[in-house]
Amino acid sequence: MATSVASRARGGSLDDPFAVHMAPPAGETSDQRTARLAAAQNADKTSRQIDEVLLQSKKILDKKKADVKILLLGQSESGKSTVLKNFRLRFTPQYFDGERAAWRMVILLNLIGSLRVICETIESELESPEFSLVSDLHRQRCADLAPVLREEEIINQLISPSKQLLGELYVRPGGEWKTILASSEVAQNSASVVLSMRDEIENFWADTAVRELMEKKEIPIRDGGGYFMDDVARITEADYVPTDSDILRARIKTMGVEEHFFEKESASAARGVKDFWIYDVPGQRGSRAAWIPFFDMVQAIVFLTPLSFYEVLEEDTRVNRLEDSVILWKDICANTLLQNCQLILFFNKMDILKAKLRAGLIINEYVPSFADRPNTYIGATTYFKEKFKAYHKRSSPKPRSFFYYETTAVDTRSTAKIIGAVHEEIFRKHLHDSVLI
Ligand SMILES: Nc1nc2c(ncn2[C@@H]2O[C@H](COP(=O)(O)OP(=O)(O)OP(=O)(O)O)[C@@H](O)[C@H]2O)c(=O)[nH]1
Ligand SMILES: [Mg+2]
Question: Quick one: a GO cellular component term (predicted)?
Answer without folding.
Answer: cytoplasm
